[in-house]
Amino acid sequence: MAARSLALRLVVGAGVWIAAALLAGGIALSTLFHDTVERSFDARLEVLLESLVAVAELDAQGQPQLSRSVGEPRFDQPYSGWYWEIAEDGKPLLRSRSLWDQELTMSDETAMTEAFRHDVVGPDNQPLRLVERQITLPGSTHRLRFGVAGETREIEAAVHSFNKTLAWSLGLLGVGLLVALLIQIRFGLQPLRRIRQSIVAVRTGRAQRLEGEFPVEIEPLSNELNVLIEHNAAVLERARTQVSNLAHALKTPLSVLTNESNAAEGPLAETVKRQTASMRQQIDHYLARARTAAAARVLGVRTEADAVAEDLRRTLERIHVDRQIRIEARVPAGLAFRGERQDLEEMLGNLADNACKWAKSRVVIAARREGSHIQFIVDDDGPGLPAAQRDAVFHRGKRLDESVPGSGHGLAIVREIAELYGGSVSLGDAPNGGLRAMLSLPATDAD
Amino acid sequence: MRILVVEDDPDLARQLKAAFSAASYTVDLAKDGEEGHFLGDTEPYDAVVLDLGLPVMDGVTVLKRWRRDGRTMPVLILTARDRWSEKVAGFDAGADDYVTKPFQMEEVLARIRALIRRASGHASAELECGGLRIDSASGRVTVDGVQVKLTAQEFRLLDYLMHHKGKIVSRTELTEHIYDQDFDRESNTIEVFVGRLRKKLGANYIATVRGLGYRLAPPGEGE
C-alpha cells in the first residue's frame, strides 16, 4: 500500500537526495574547517619558531642561550603541551621548561632548507605538532636544529565543536527541507485530489463530465476521461438506436402479416396468425431485455424527475383525452434520478399509463427523496387490485383483464429496469381506494 | 371522409387503404415524408395516419411543419417506435393519437373514427339529426328506426354532412372530402348523389343553399 503512494515515493526520493547532499556538504565543510584551523595552528607555531630563533644566541662557550623569553607562558609550565628545543645532531642543547627532562622527537631530515612540519608524540603521550628548522647562528659553523611543538588537541577540540554545530544546523536544515517538501507535495498533488472529487461527482451522477481547470500535466488525463465517458454514452446510444431500428424493421412486416392473416381464412391464415402473435411476444420480450441490459452501465448521467413527470403528464392526458382523466404531477424540482432519461420515462410511463387505464377520473404522480433514493408514487382512483394478485402483474405476459388494451409487458419491464438500477417497484392501496404503485430508484447525491 | 395514409411499406399501405375503403373512407396514399407533407399541406383531409420512420422526411418533421403552417386535421401516428420518449416527442409535435406496431386494424379504425368525431365536436360514435341516425363504426343508417341501404359514395356524402350538421357545406368541400386526389373534379356527380340521398332518406334532410352549397338539418328546421 505504502509502496504505491505517490507522496511516499516523492518523499523517499527527495529525502535520500537531501540526506546525501547534506552529508557531502557537511564533510566538505568539516574538512575545510579542519584544514583552516590546522593552517592557522601551523602559522602560530612558525611565528613562535621565528621568535625562538630571534632570541637565540651563542654564549662564550659556543652554547646556545636565550637572550630573553620567547613570550609564551605555556613554555614555562611543565608538560603544558607547548614545547621548544634547540638541538645539535640529535642531542638537545637547550629546551623549554615545560619539557622538563623529556625531549622532542626531531626528524632525521638533514637537508632542511625551510620549516618542516610533522606530528609526533610528546610527553604524557600528548599528540604534538612539531615545526623544526635548521639554522646556523651568526658567528658559528654549527647547524642547530630549532623545534617548536604545540598540542594538537586544541585543533581537535575546535574541529569537534565546529562539527557539532555543523551537524545540528545541517540536521535542522534537512528537517526544514523535508517539511517544505511535504507541504509542496500536498500542494502539488492537490489537483489529483480535485480530479478524484470530479470523478466521484461523475460516478454519483452529480456531473456529466469532469469539470474544472486542471494543470497541464493532468489535463490530458481529464480530457481522456471525458472522451471515455462520452464514448461510453455514445456506444450505449448506438446500441439503443440499433435496437430501435431493429424494432422498426421487424414490426412493420409483422403488422402486414398479422393484418393479412386476420383478413384471410383457412389453415394457413390460422397458422400465420398464431405464429405472428408468438413472434410479436418474442420481439417485445427480447427488445425490452436488450434495452434494459444496456441501461445502468453508463456513468455520469442524471435525469431531472420533474421534467420527465411533466412530459408524461402532458402526453398521457392526450392519450386518454376521451376518458377525461385528470393527471397531476407533484414532483418537486431538484430531484434527480441517477440513470438514463429513457429508462425513467419507460418505468414511470408504464406505471402512469397503467394507472390511467384503470382510473375513474384522476391519477397522481408524486415523488419525494428518501435517503439515497427517490420514491415515486403513482395513485389512481380505479378499482384497485387485491393483494393476492399484485405480484402476478409483474410477470411477463400476465394480463389480469384482457379487455383493457396493452401487451401485458409494461409492469414486468418496469420491474426489470428498476432492479437493474438497484431499485424496486411494488403495489399497494391508494388513499382514495385505487391502486398505488411505488417505484424506488437511486437518486443523485444532493448538491 | 377523406384520409391520408403516409406509410412507406407498400404492403402495409395497401392493407390500410383496403381497410379504410371498406369502412367507407376515401384514402390517399403517400409513400414518403415529402409527398405526405405536400398532400397534407394542399388537400383538405379529415384525418391522417402518419408513420414516423419515413424516407426523405421524418414523420415528426412532417407533423411539425403541418402544425407550424396551421394545418389542424387530426393526426394518428402509427409507428414501431414504442418508447415513451418517442410518444412524448410525437404528441409534442402535435399528434392527436399514437398507435404502435404491430397493431390491430380494428383499433386503428376505431381511433380514427374517434379522432374525426372529436374534431367535429361530437361525443358519440352515433350521430343523429331528427329521425336520421348514422353509426360511423358499423356504417348503419336508419330513418325513424328503419334501416336504409346506401352505397359507399352515398354513405361518405351523408357521413360528412352529418359531421357538419347544421353548417353550410360547399360543393367543392364535399368533392374534396369524398373523392381521392385522382378524381376528376369537374364532373357534377355530387348533385346526382345528393338527389339519390334525398330520395332514400325521404323528407327534406338535405337543403340546397343557393349559390353556397348544402346543409343538413332536421326537416322543418331553419328553412
Number of domains of chain B: 2
Largest beta sheet: strand ordering of chain B: 2-1-3-4-5
| Average pLDDT score of chain A | 85
The total count of strands of chain A amounts to 14
Strand/helix succession of chain A: HEEEEEEEHHHHEHEEHEEHHEE
CATH C-level of the largest domain in chain B: Alpha Beta
* Approximate shape of chain B: globular
Give the largest chain-chain interface (CB within 8 Å): A-B, 34 and 31 residues
Outline the fold blueprint.
The complex is a heterodimer of chains A (447) and B (223).
Chain A lengths: L5 H50 E3 L5 E3 L15 E7 L2 E5 L20 E6 L5 E10 L6 E9 L1 H36 L1 H14 L15 H45 L3 H28 L8 E2 H15 L6 E5 L5 E2 L3 H18 L3 E9 L2 E8 L6 H4 L19 H11 L3 E6 L5 E8 L5
Parallel strand pairs in A: 9-11
Antiparallel strand pairs in A: 1-2, 3-4, 3-7, 5-6, 6-7, 8-10, 11-12, 12-14, 13-14
Helix pairs in contact in A: 1-2, 4-5, 5-9, 6-7, 7-9
Chain B lengths: L1 E5 L3 H13 L3 E5 L2 H10 L4 E4 L8 H10 L6 E5 L4 H10 L3 E4 L4 H15 L6 E4 L2 E4 L4 E4 L2 E2 L4 H12 L4 E2 L1 H8 L10 H13 L4 E4 L3 E4 L7
Parallel strand pairs in B: 1-2, 1-3, 3-4, 4-5
Antiparallel strand pairs in B: 6-7, 7-8, 8-9, 10-12, 11-12
Could you write a compact summary of the structure shown?
The complex is a heterodimer of chains A (447) and B (223). Chain A contains nine helices and 14 strands.
Structure, described:
- The complex is a heterodimer of chains A (447) and B (223).
- With 447 residues, chain A is an alpha+beta fold.
- Helix content of chain A is 49%, strand content 19%.
- Chain A contains nine helices and 14 strands.
- Chain A has helices spanning 6-55, 153-188, 190-203, 219-263, 267-294, 305-319, 341-358, 387-390, 410-420; strands spanning 56-58, 64-66, 82-88, 91-95, 116-121, 127-136, 143-151, 303-304, 326-330, 336-337, 362-370, 373-380, 424-429, 435-442.
- A five-stranded antiparallel β-sheet of chain A has the order 4-3-7-6-5.
- In chain A, helix 1 packs antiparallel against helix 2.
- In chain A, 28% of the residues are buried.
- The two termini of chain B are 26 Å apart.
- Chain B has eight helices and twelve strands.
- Chain B has 223 residues and is α/β, with parallel strands linked by helices.
- In chain B, a hairpin with a 2-residue loop joins strand 8 and strand 9 (146-147).
- Chain B has a five-stranded parallel β-sheet with strand order 2-1-3-4-5, with helices on both faces. Chain B has a four-stranded antiparallel β-sheet with strand order 6-7-8-9, covered by helices on one side. A three-stranded antiparallel β-sheet of chain B has the order 10-12-11.
- Chain A binds chain B through residues 244, 247-256, 258-260, 262-263, 276, 280, 311-312, 314-315, 318-319, 321-322, 341-342, 345-346, 348-350, 405, and chain B through 9, 11-12, 15, 18-19, 53, 79-85, 87-88, 91-92, 95-98, 100-105, 107, 114, 118.
